[in-house]
Write a structure and sequence with these properties.
Structural class: mainly beta
Oligomer: single chain
Shape: elongated
Number of helices: 5
CATH topology of the largest domain: Jelly Rolls
Number of strands: 29
Largest sheet: 9 strands, mixed
Helix content: 10-25%
Number of domains: 2
Strand content: 35-45%
Radius of gyration: 25 Å
């Protein structure tokens, strides 16, 4: 998986190819100088508030230690200042204590719009990492001023990569204030981790990993041209023990990696499990009212298509939901075996009465590297997370987990027929059913002979039997009114 630095390098190459960085850098330098004068004129005051404990006293790094080669953290004028240096890996200022359940608030400011930082929580140190200088790993609440605007999203540093990209919460992308002090709030309670940026809810993640660890402030690795850029932190405070958690917000999408479980927030938001790890009661064969008596099985909390001959519906056949859906939010996890092909279809009506797989709009599930379908169609529109034979998915490599690991898919259909495909939290594509652009794509596809293809008012959700071994779990849906 590519690291975040590679992504930012590509952005910076594009952004500054005209040499305009120098002008912006000058303006930023002047603005920062004025800010420093103001900060120096206002003494740092640790305000005692009921239930809060300050992790930074405004004078020293007492209670903290530095992890990373030649990491540059200092206290200047009541601020923790981290300076980025060319050629160095990520470095961290970490608490000497570990914390479990807590509310953490941090004020921060980052120089530039292509730099990066973050706040680690419930994290740990690998002392052998980075050639013995130490490496921090665990959940990081992202500080990201780049055009993608993922500040407040969650990145699992040194481990799983992106776990809550902010594509999942478009409303939060505008909360960050460029080169101003921002307030980050993080709540860790039980398995749940939530974040806010300047009071705007950003992410909501439910984990299965350790529930305690250090807190750390990050200096991110940089390309050479950003040498000397800085990140500032102040008012770092925490509540532990008994504290009042913020109200749950049903409008914020929840990434819940606990298999086949709905959180209280998901239940209140209207989600229902279509598969709970045991029962297939909400599914039936496309060929009749009952679940197939062969070709499918439930094992280890997963609904599995069994390996056959790699053909469409030649074994147990496709299965569909007993219910029909019009406007909905569908999430599912899937795991591919090498060379496997399958799909999740929606707006399936069965009116076509095909001999092979049933007809419907399809979120493609495929081993792109080895299955021949990836090279068919047009411009890759039969690859993973694509709208099969119509629209090619975002080719961002970091959205894809290796074959044999669980991936998270999501399909959202709005009342105005906008459709979104996500893969592991990243937006893969967007289109509008029934639009001229959609109809033009259909006319070029294998669906051109089906009248009003993909435009049904309601339809079933389908899991495809393509004769390859594929597993599904955590299938949950919300009907949107």
């Amino acid at each position: 998986m590519k690291n975040k630095t590679a992504y930012k390098n590509k952005l910076m190459d594009k952004k500054y190819s005209d040499g305009s960085w120098h002008l912006r850098a000058a303006r930023n330098f002047i603005a920062l100088g004025l800010t420093s004068l103001l900060v120096g004129a206002i003494p740092f005051v640790v305000q005692a508030q009921k239930g809060w404990h300050h992790l930074f006293d405004g004078k020293s790094l007492s209670g903290w230690k530095i992890v990373g080669k030649d990491a540059d953290f200092k206290v200047e004028e009541g601020l923790i200042v981290g300076t980025m240096k060319k050629g160095l890996p990520n470095a961290f200022l970490v608490t000497e204590k570990e914390y479990g359940d807590f509310v953490l608030e941090v004020e921060f400011k980052l120089e530039g719009n292509t730099t990066n930082s973050g706040v680690q929580v419930r994290s740990h140190i690998d002392p052998e990492g980075n050639k013995g200088y130490g490496r921090v790993f665990g959940p990081q609440v992202e500080i990201d001023p780049t055009p993608r605007s993922w500040t407040g999203g969650l990145y699992d540093e040194g481990r799983r990569g992106w776990i809550y990209p902010l594509d999942l919460n478009e409303k939060a992308k505008s909360a960050y204030k460029l080169e101003e002090f921002n307030t980050l709030r993080i709540e860790a309670l039980g398995a749940e981790l939530r974040s806010w940026v300047n009071g705007v809810p950003a992410s909501h993640f439910i984990d299965t990993m350790r529930r305690e660890g250090i807190i750390a402030l990050q200096i991110h690795s940089i390309p050479d041209e950003l040498d000397g850029k800085r990140v500032f932190f102040r008012q770092v405070r925490i509540q532990t023990g008994k504290f009042k958690a913020s109200p749950l917000n049903p409008d914020v999408y929840v990434v819940n990696v606990q298999p086949n479980v709905l959180s209280e927030t998901e239940k209140k938001a209207g989600y229902n499990l279509l598969f709970d790890g045991n029962s297939v009661g909400q599914w039936r064969s496309v060929k009749g009212p009952d679940f197939p008596d062969r070709g499918w099985k439930v094992s280890d909390g997963a609904l599995q298509v069994l390996k056959a001959d790699g053909g469409e519906s030649t074994n147990g056949g496709d299965i569909i939901t007993k219910d029909r859906y019009a406007v909905f939010d569908l999430s599912f996890e899937f795991k591919l075996t090498p060379g496997a092909n399958s799909g999740v279809k929606y707006f399936v009506t069965l009116k076509e009465q095909t001999q092979g797989s049933a007809i419907g709009l399809e979120y493609q599930i495929l081993d792109d590297a080895t299955h021949p379908d990836a090279k068919l169609g047009r411009a890759g529109n039969r690859t993973l997370a694509s709208l099969y034979d119509l629209i090619t998915s975002n080719r961002e490599e970091r959205a894809r987990r290796p074959i044999g690991q669980w991936n998270r898919g999501r399909i959202v259909v709005t009342a105005d027929n906008q459709v979104f495909h996500y893969l592991n939290g990243m937006l893969m594509l967007q289109y509008k059913r029934g639009s001229k652009e959609f109809k033009d794509l259909v006319a070029l596809s294998k669906y051109k002979d089906w009248e009003a293809f993909g435009e049904a008012a309601t339809g079933h959700i389908l899991l495809q039997d393509h004769g390859d071994a594929v597993s599904f779990r955590s299938i949950k849906v919300k009907k949107i009114k």
